[in-house]
Amino acid sequence: MTAGHLAVIDMQHVFADPASPWATPRYADAVAGVRSLLPAFAGRVTFTRFLAPGRPTGAWRAYYDQWPFALQPPDAELWQLSEEFAEHTGHVVDAPTFGKWTPRLAARVGPDSRLVLAGVSTECCVLSTALAAADAGTEVLVVSDACAGVDDDSHLKALQIMELYRPLVRVTTVDDLLAESGP
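Above: the chain sequence. Below: its structure as tokens.
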């Protein structure tokens, strides 16, 4: 069993649907990576969902002026976990922010624990979550092949940026992470 807590970031319809303005082209690759990780984190997995606020404030007003399609209630289909993860509703953290390092997720991970991140999109919500958790003193591992970005270049750049935060943030792969725990 792999040490730490797995947070699966925003594996939702809005990012899975190729017709969505927020489609993540390699979403299926991230799904495969996440599915490989789930058994190793039995009972220590939190899924997150990005949700639009009821009423955007501050700079979020301009953001939703650019993306008005997203101003839908929390129960809208676009915000639901995609079919591959629909049964994983036991531990879900919702947030109207890119970063998902909320008090709820921090409590689930616990003090002095390791946070393993997978999901979408690498250059937005995964990056924002990783940096906030690292600032809080949590060891963060980002599983590169269980994440996907808006495009390959953005994904790779985000991984390179996160790698600059070593030893607080470390980029790894599914195989390397699972091999850490040994046979």
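The longest strand covers residues 139-148.
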